Amino acid sequence: MPTSLPLELLHMIFLQAAESSTSSCYALCRVSSWLRHLALPLLYRTVSVDCIERLDAFDRSITSIPLAYSPSSEFRPADAVRHLWVPFDFDPETLKRVMRHCGNLTHLATQLRDLVRLSDATTCPSGDGEHAGTGDLHVVLLQTRASHASPVYCYPGGIYPLFDRITHLRLEDPIHPAVALAIVDMPCLTHLAAPYEDVDKSLSWAFHKIADTSVEVFVLVLMRESLYKSEFPAVEDWVCKSHE
User: Fold this and answer.
1) Integer Cα distance of 224 and 214 in angstroms
2) Per-residue pLDDT of the chain (244 residues; tens, 9 = 90+)
3) How far apart are CA 176 and CA 151, in angstroms?
4) What count of other Cβ atoms lies within 10 Å of the Cβ of residue 26?
């Protein structure tokens, strides 16, 4: 009876273990160089930064990881980053520096005011090829209500490299005027999702604002407990208008 498994099967087992949780992935990185080579890129794939100190530490780690901890001399942690979650106010220059290194970033979650601070940022690292940092970017906007968003967007109609990459936008809160202004400057935006709040105001106002944009799919999250039966005709009428 065989005493060892085929390498291909071991690879699949450890890969699934590394993808199961951050703690498992980190543990595998400390077992051997072979497993570190497998797991370390996955450890950097999804990054959640919940304070400024961790953002600074992450910034240092993607630019100066010790060779002893790197699976190979060619490994660049920044290339492995795909998803970045930054739900707090940060130093814009630090995150701009992070964004410049993370040319393969595909998903970003942050507040509107912070996205605007990044609007002139680029994710095209020098020397990494003409296609680096040019792919679709999916963005989740956190805390987009008036108390958080109103003062931040002041320069509509400008040139924003980061906005040019945004194709999918999901809002944590109903659409606010500041968000609508930002959407105008996202020429590649095709998918927009936002929660429903009020048929008479929120829906008609939102429809008017995005009618002339590149948005092709607009998903409204309707809260069942706040949607009265009498409001269904208004919702249906709004949906019909969106197809005209």
Assistant:
1) 29
2) 345 788 888 889 999 999 898 899 989 988 888 888 889 889 899 998 888 888 888 888 887 765 555 556 677 888 889 999 988 777 778 888 888 888 899 999 988 877 877 776 665 544 343 334 568 999 998 875 544 444 444 444 455 678 888 999 998 887 777 777 778 788 899 999 888 765 555 556 666 667 777 888 888 776 555 556 666 676 677 666 655 5
3) 11
4) 13
pTM, to two decimals: 0.75
Measured at the alpha carbon of residue 119, what is the angle toward residues 117 and 125, in degrees to the nearest 5? 110
Q: Which residues pair with 111 in a beta bridge?
A: 142
111 token code pair: 């507040």
- b/e per residue 198-236 (b: at least 16 CB within 10 A): ebeebbeebbebbeebebeebebeeeeeeeeeebeebee
CB 233 within 8 A of CB 209: no
Which residue, among 159, 149, 155, has the nearest Cα to 113 in the 3D structure?
149
* Residue 230 token pair: 């009498």
